[in-house]
Structure to design on (656 residues):
């Protein structure tokens, strides 16, 4: 742009250049000033910097002084800008003198500036105007989304969904993510029948620990202890907090309004974690501030349903009792082996109903369908043995595909794939093109570890990559226990198939017993985590108020035909591809095409198939439950594209 007529460059630095250009009016200033950098006051003796704390504030103010009447300032700033810049009395005084206001703030997702930083940032637009409203939205790589967002900015019009534009109060605004989270909280609260009340109505006092000079707080019978950072468990007992935790609040609640044990339990649910996310501010280590907490809203059952809180606490106590009882029975089983008949009767009394079928209906169909097939073969030991082995291989592939899809969907996480998987593939002579149970177990082991690391360092980047803030789901796919289970089960499989000749019924039963114990571990790991997740197969689509509305099949549970529902999203979904989506998200994670739900070539019935391997130039898929047509071999171009995406990870790529 250096040759553009009317374009003037000042290469000596923002402040020196702006000072030298004093008196000059410009139509636009575009800048990415230094973030969160304290002002080196000795450098600016020519300027009045009293009350200005950050270098970026000075750059923005001095830039705005040069704007013409119709000029515009466009700056890239961290989300903490809305705490520091907006709350600075000196900054606001200077802006008022110039008649300048922030008119727009568009979020750039976490990781946009990786590898330099993974923090969430915003593009802010500043202009001379009397309009006190702030327009906010979110940037997207999707062209139709960007076009609609720019149109709404230009016309000062709200979009059909928050990402495409909302007007907010600048003084209470602390970033688009917080706004979106609050909107999701309101929606989830309404769905659960919870009502909003000011926190100050339910909490009489808030005390806080000082990390620099830590002292335990005085215990109180109506206290709830709320950690300021991360997802650490809230509790009513200070002794139950992690020993190393030094930063938390003590909320003294009014027991006539809220049961402290109910509030602590609610704060540990996915809904409660979302509420806590909405209160955190700060770019590097987001934390809940006392002032933000005091001005927040709580969501509780209606006031005339106060007794429901006590009932919930009672139910939780009963569940805890049952857990303890089961642990006691397990200890008694092994401590008093000769009393096994009595122990068996005790177990039967506790297990009055079999909820296995109900649990299957919460699982994604690719897994639930195999388990249902196993469930129907209770008396066929060898057949059940084979199906159980198929299930665990499918489980490894299913989790691996989710992990690979999340990492490969993100510019920030994709570079971590090769170092995470390279050594495992090389040492085990593994390859995606010739995938085995061992391949998928290695993928899960390596990427689960990397995902745990990324969640510790860059949680917002992980949320963006996997298109979800559902921590339960992320806990499942990165579970150490799951990694160990897959490794152990792969060994069971190799040992079982390593025997030559016929397998006796007794040997098959022994393997079955081991695999069924492993299946119980899967159930313990999964719990009800999949209830808040949908596996979707998109169908017809229409555009409605700048949003894609798909009729999608919900590929969950054991039953076909699948139910359909209308799914609004802000990014187009691809035909014949599966998407993992949580209901309160406007985006779904597109799974790599190693798992397909397609019509059977022989019967035309919709069936689930797992990628097995390349056979010459074609791709082989297997179904582990659909006996009428258990194998499909064909030209699946999307699989080849996916293999090319993962090419650096492919140990045998030199053969191609």
């Amino acid at each position: 742009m250096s040759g553009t007529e009317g374009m003037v460059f000042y290469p000596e630095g923002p402040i020196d250049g702006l000072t030298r250009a004093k008196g000059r009016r410009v139509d636009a200033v575009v800048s990415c000033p230094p973030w969160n950098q304290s002002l080196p006051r000795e450098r600016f003796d020519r300027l009045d910097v009293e009350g200005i704390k950050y270098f970026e504030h000075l750059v923005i103010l001095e830039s705005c002084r040069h704007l013409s009447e119709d000029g515009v300032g466009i700056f890239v700033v961290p989300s903490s800008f809305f705490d520091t810049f907006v709350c600075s009395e000196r900054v606001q005084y200077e802006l008022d003198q110039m008649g300048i206001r922030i008119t727009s703030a568009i979020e750039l997702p976490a990781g946009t500036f990786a590898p330099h930083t993974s923090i969430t940032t915003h593009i802010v637009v500043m202009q001379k105007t009397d309009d006190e409203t702030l327009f906010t939205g979110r940037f997207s790589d999707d062209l139709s989304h960007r076009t609609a967002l720019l149109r709404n900015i230009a016309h000062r019009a709200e979009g059909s969904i928050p990402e495409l534009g909302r007007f907010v109060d600048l003084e209470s605004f602390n970033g688009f993510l917080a706004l979106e989270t609050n909107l999701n909280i309101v929606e989830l609260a309404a769905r659960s029948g919870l009502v909003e009340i000011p926190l100050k109505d339910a909490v009489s006092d808030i005390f806080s620990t000082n990390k620099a000079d830590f002292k335990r707080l005085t215990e109180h019978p109506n206290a709830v202890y709320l950690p300021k950072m991360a997802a650490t468990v809230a509790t009513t007992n200070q002794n139950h907090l992690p020993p190393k935790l030094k930063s938390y609040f003590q909320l003294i609640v009014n027991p006539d309004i809220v049961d402290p044990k109910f509030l602590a339990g609610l704060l540990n649910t996915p809904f409660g974690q979302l509420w806590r996310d909405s209160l955190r501010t700060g770019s590097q280590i987001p934390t809940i501030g006392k002032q933000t907490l005091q001005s927040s809203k709580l969501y509780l059952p209606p006031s005339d349903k106060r007794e429901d809180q006590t009932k919930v606490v009672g139910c939780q106590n009963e569940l805890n009792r049952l857990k303890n009882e089961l642990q006691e029975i397990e200890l008694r089983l092994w401590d008093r082996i000769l009393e096994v008949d009595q122990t068996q009767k005790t177990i039967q009394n506790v297990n009055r109903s079999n909820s296995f079928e109900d649990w299957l209906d919460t699982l994604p169909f690719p897994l639930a369908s195999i388990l249902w097939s196993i469930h129907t073969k209770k008396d066929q030991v060898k057949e059940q043995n084979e199906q159980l082995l198929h299930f665990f291989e499918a489980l490894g592939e299913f989790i691996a595909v989710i992990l690979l899809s999340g990492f490969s969907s993100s510019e920030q996480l994709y570079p971590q794939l090769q170092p995470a998987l390279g050594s495992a593939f090389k040492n085990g002579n593994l390859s995606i093109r010739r995938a085995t149970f061992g391949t998928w177990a290695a993928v899960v082991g390596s990427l689960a570890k990397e995902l745990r690391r990324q969640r510790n360092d860059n949680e917002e980047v992980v949320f963006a990559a996997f298109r979800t803030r559902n921590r339960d789901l992320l806990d499942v796919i990165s579970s150490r226990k799951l990694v160990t289970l897959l490794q152990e089960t792969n060994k069971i499989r190799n040992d079982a198939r390593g025997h030559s000749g016929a397998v006796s019924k007794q040997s098959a039963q022994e393997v079955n017993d081991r695999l069924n114990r492993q299946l119980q571990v899967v159930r313990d790991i999964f719990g009800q985590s999949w209830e808040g997740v949908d596996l979707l197969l998109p169908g017809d689509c229409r555009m409605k108020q700048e949003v894609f509305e798909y009729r999608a099949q919900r590929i969950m549970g054991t039953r076909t035909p699948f139910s359909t529902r209308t799914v609004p999203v802000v990014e187009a979904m691809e035909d014949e591809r599966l998407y993992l989506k949580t209901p309160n998200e406007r985006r779904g994670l597109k799974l790599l095409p190693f798992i397909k739900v397609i019509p059977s070539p022989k019967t035309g019935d919709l069936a689930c198939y797992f990628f097995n391997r390349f056979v010459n130039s074609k791709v082989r898929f297997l179904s582990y439950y659909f006996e009428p047509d258990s194998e499909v071999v064909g030209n699946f171009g999307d699989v080849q594209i996916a293999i090319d995406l993962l090419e650096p990870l492919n140990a045998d790529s030199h053969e191609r």
